[in-house]
Design brief:
- It contains 18 helices and 15 strands.
- By secondary structure, the protein is an alpha/beta fold.
- The chain folds into two domains: about 200 residues, NAD(P)-binding Rossmann-like Domain (Rossmann fold, 3-Layer(aba) Sandwich), CATH 3.40.50.720; about 150 residues, Rossmann fold, CATH 3.40.50.720.
- Strand 12, helix 16 and strand 13 form a beta-alpha-beta unit.
- Helix 5 packs parallel to helix 6, helix 9 crosses helix 11 and helix 12 packs parallel to helix 13.
- The N and C termini lie far apart (about 70 Å).
- It binds uridine-5'-diphosphate-xylopyranose.
Amino acid sequence: MTVRIAIIGTGYVGLVSGACFAELGHDVVCVDKVASKIDMLNSGGIPIYEPGLEEIVRRNSAAGRLRFTTSVTEAVQRCDAVFIAVGTPTKSDSDHADLSYVYAAAEEIAKSITGFTVVVSKSTVPVGTNRRVLEICRANIGENAQVAVASNPEFLREGAAINDFMCPDRIVVGADDQRAQEVMERIYSPLTISRNVPLISTSTETAELTKYAANAFLAAKISFINEMADLCEAVGANINDVSLGIGLDSRIGRRFLNTGPGWGGSCFPKDTRALLATAEQNNVNCKIVQAALEANEDRKRLMIEKVIHACGGAVNGKRIAVFGLTFKGQTDDMRESTSLVLLPALAQLGAQICAFDPSDPHEASELIGNINTCKTPEQAAEGADLLVILTDWMIFKTYDLKQLAAQMRRAHMLDLRNMYSSTEALAAGFTNYTGLGMPPTKRPALLAVAE
Ligand code: UDX
């Protein structure tokens, strides 16, 4: 059953959700204050990098189910549900989330509502925000209008957002009003009824906290495996096997057990900090989340030591090829990426950095400063003393390692994502391979001579 939906905010969450709701058959209008973004969307362009999104937007726009406007009033007037998907950045003076955009959106929506409308928070918001949104809406709606709120957190990973939306593990809906609950059930019925996706109904507070708890748990899971990787290095064990060995226990699960150079992005760092701020406000000690965050900050700095070590003790004058600048593969997002900690430190120590990222993030030089950004992997590898794999772009696996090794002055690889095996790297001509959480390997001298 078609629901008329407005989405306020066309960032990652708003645009993906809007396009996917249209794909599920609903009638969707996406709103953004930035006119240039709306113009771009109206002329078939996509302001963000998200695999698969362009096609869904094109298909649903052509079918008339997806439209874009700068006018909240025009979008909201005719709607059953309005989703708030605006930013909730960390405040400049504390670790709390800045809710000013959410509250401003709620006020503007309320003034335009006619009839019964559900105002839904998609943005990640601290516990209690939806109650405040309801108060703001009630204080601003017209005489004949009625409003209810719902919390519907998103669990979308950048780079995999379409699949995460269309095939979710679960949908969480927090609503204290029966009518709001019913509208939300109608919206998700193509997934819950046709695809058997579980929908969990909770109070708004529970839904709000569930989102933070999910991100904090995943962040802690990665910090944990990163700690185990350090231990593996110290005792000569192999983290890939440890991950598999524990991950196949269904109580633990295999996903998010890949060791790496520290987690980043727009969510984990911001949400763990905001969760800790909420805990402190409520006099609750969340030691595990605190430790996960601190361990992650330490880890990003530890990567500097690893590069220095792989360069033989000093990076001054060394040419270092870096593959990947974004916080993970399949995105152009550099927020809280380890590259922002690692590369300026190496440049400061005198390294010449030649970085390549498939998404060619335009702000890289501006954010990192003294680095050369290269257009191709070959350009970055040319004459390098070390190749550092920093981001897990799947496309890296298709590169010709043999050619890259041959181009380097000193064919050493430091794989901070364990994307390659030592066998693969050494067979391609690398003389040294260092992954995380495993003993470093060298090409046997005899093999090198024989060739
Ligand atoms: C995350 C959540 O996964 C998503 O549900 C939420 O709604 C938004 O935040 P995202 O920030 O897009 O998504 O990235 P994610 O894939 O979760 O990765 C976060 C960070 O953890 C990245 O830096 C990634 O490289 C790192 N990571 C992830 C690891 O180091 N190891 C892993 O096994 C998984």
